[in-house]
Specification:
With 160 residues, this protein is mainly α. It has a single domain, classed as Up-down Bundle (Bromodomain-like). Helices cover 69% and strands 2% of the residues. It is built from six helices and two strands. Strands 1-2 form a two-stranded antiparallel ribbon. β1 and β2 form a beta hairpin. α1 packs antiparallel against α2 and α1 packs antiparallel against α6. The longest helix is centred in the middle third of the chain and has 26 residues.
Length: 160
């Protein structure tokens, strides 16, 4: 069984691996991230940073576990939303929007964030699969695993 510190290090390393994979897919495989992909990346980073803070702080295992689980479940919500968009019939897919960079140039921060959270037609495109699962399906599985690790932190005794 992993200690609290080991679990937090494990979560942090998983999140780093997920971001490294996302950057590889974007820059080497030349897959363009959609709005929901960017949102999911943000929650992977938030989850990893919370785990790093918990590792450094080495106290408040239950509180950090709660926020790690909450962050991972929120990211999982956006993965699920993208999966839902990918499985809509073509005539129900929302229209594609402008690139994310344009959103932040043309709209206020809160308006741009709202658009990122809603997603658009680009989010419905399946760009890559592995074992018949798309990127958001794999991301959802990772978020669920990270949430379980966070919940396990909440359930641990006070020992580190």
């Amino acid at each position: 069984m992993l200690t609290g510190r080991q679990t937090n290090l494990f979560i942090f390393l998983i999140c780093n691996g997920l971001i490294a994979t996302a950057l590889y897919m974007q820059h080497v495989m030349e897959l363009t991230p959609c709005y929901l992909c960017i949102t999911q990346r943000a929650f992977v980073i938030i989850t990893g940073m919370l785990a790093l803070l918990a590792l450094i702080h080495n106290n408040g295992l239950k509180i950090y576990g709660f926020f790690i689980a909450l962050s991972a479940l929120t990211g999982g919500f956006f993965s699920g939303k993208q999966l839902w968009l990918q499985n809509l019939p073509e005539d129900q897919v929302p229209a594609c929007g402008p690139p994310a960079e344009y959103l932040f140039d043309a709209f206020s921060f809160t308006e741009a964030m709202g658009m990122l959270f809603r997603g658009d037609g680009n989010c419905a495109e399946v760009q890559w699969t592995f074992l018949s699962l798309s990127i958001p399906a794999w991301t959802l599985l990772c978020f669920l695993f990270l949430a379980l690790l966070g919940i396990s932190q909440m359930l641990k005794k006070s020992k580190t």
